[in-house]
């Protein structure tokens, strides 16, 4: 805000400096790489990261959404639907992880 003063360490007031918004995570190293995104409500998608901002709004290309099992809505199936180029609103994003370097392992908490 212009005209707002802040106290400095020596007791004097100076003009307030605007803070630069920084993202909590640095996604720049994942540009043009496949990312898996989980959303509030349980939806999941995989797409190529094309852009992002400090609020974690994401732009994904060649995106595929994983569909839910009709009998068990909590279970995600391997069936997908093509979404293409999408914009993901940051507040709805719960998890972001790169596809490369991930390995699916059996759940150690489920007994056979």
From TrEMBL:
Region (Disordered): 1-20
InterPro entries (alphabetical): Lsm7 (IPR017132), Lsm7/SmG-like (IPR044641), LSM_dom_sf (IPR010920), Sm (IPR047575), Sm_dom_euk/arc (IPR001163)
Pfam families linked to this entry: LSM
Record flagged with keyword Repeat: no
Gene: 107364894
Molecular function per GO: RNA binding
Family from the record: Belongs to the snRNP Sm proteins family.
Gene Ontology CC: one annotated term: U6 snRNP
GO BP, sorted A to Z: mRNA splicing, via spliceosome; nuclear-transcribed mRNA catabolic process
The Sm domain, residue ranges: 22-102
Protein name: U6 snRNA-associated Sm-like protein LSm7
Organism: Tetranychus urticae (Two-spotted spider mite)
Keywords, alphabetical: Acetylation, mRNA processing, mRNA splicing, Nucleus, Ribonucleoprotein, RNA-binding, Spliceosome
